[in-house]
Amino acid sequence: RAARYPGVVAIDLNLGCPQRSAHSGHFGAFLLDPPDRPLLLSIVSTMSRTLSVPLFCKIRLLENIDDTLEFVQQLQAAGCALIAVHARYRGSPLHRRDGPAHLDQVRAIKEVLTIPVLTNGNVRNAEDLLHTLQSTGADGVMSAEGALDDPAIFARAAAAVSRKRRQLKKVVLENKESRRVIRAAATESGRTPTADERAILCEAKAKLVAARQAKRALPALPRPSAVNGASNATDGSGGTACKRASLPSPIELAEQYLELVEEHPTDMTHVIFHVRRLVKASLTQNQLLPSLEKCTTLGAVKEVLRRCRAYAEGRDPGEEGADAEQEARRARKVANAARRAEFVERMASKARKEGRPDDFYLSAGREPPTDADIAKARRMSSEQQQARFWRTRFGQHCSGWYLHGACPYVDDARGCGFLHGGDESTWMDRMKCSCQIDDPLLGLGLNTARSGVRREHLFGERSV
User: Picking from 15-29, 84-98, 374-388, which range would have the lowest pLDDT averaged per residue?
Assistant: First the structure.
């Protein structure tokens, strides 16, 4: 089914996963042992014959290089069209990394195969990427950690190759011109080149040969494309000069990432993780890491990036407008207050219709959870058990806020009607006054000694 999906150009069989789940499920790198070899080769053969697109395989190194070389040749014979090599050993389910990747083995693999080989490992930046390509002779590179820190790592590598190619071309042209001038001068004067001129000719020829060899040794990477639709522009001599593509800075990459998050929302923990990796140097230098880690909205993260950019450009970040995080927090309080007030009034109205006290339904699940209650809920084996426990004991309190550190309705403009036990105490007091309900949890007179709620829970900066 995947092969028939629009846009799919190949199917990759992952034979490199070393995790515990792969060990317990008997897949990934744990299919590489000799007893499973006939089964694995049968899978590869069947897929390569029946798929409408090529089959790729990703592997890890076997314990012995000769075994690895035999294995990759078997994969090629079975119909594998490309092999990606994570140049580390499988290790054990509990210890998966064994130091730097063994790139020398990738070169040995490349030499015995006729199909393309990708190398994986030891790539942290564009320079590492180019070194890996040149040292292994591989047809391509895969990167995980390097691409997390710099999604433009491939573009930077391509730009570096393009820049080096231009430099070598200049060396070739300069030395060709030097040789032409000397020969022309000798010809015009009807003489042979002098000893000094012959020395210059020999030196220029050596530089020519070296530059051409270096140029041939460069990886065959695509040329960087112009950014923002840059087109050819006329230079001062009447020719054309192609506008060079500008590569994005880490801050620009982070800003582009946030634009994608706005289109495809994800959890804030993921957002903070990626932004921290993208601009960690700037965040650390300007002491903004704590500010980023406290963010709960995209607006707050954008404010941190704005300050990073201001520092990078030598400007005082100042207080351009209200702090986005504070604004977001105030907006959430207002929305939560309205949602809670609506719920309180609805429950009170229901109780009055039934001839019960106004706080009849509000008394159930009203007591805040203690630290011990929270720890007990987190230890429960299933979500169903946890939800049942919370609903029975603390039904009026936001389980997401207490158990996971984030209200699930944080981005809901309508707010959250559950109690959060923290900096919402002020709006609880307002709701108590507006609803005329004698509910001690809606006021500021909460007995913290009795309930076990920490001061941080009442006045913000909650620690989990």
Answer: 84-98
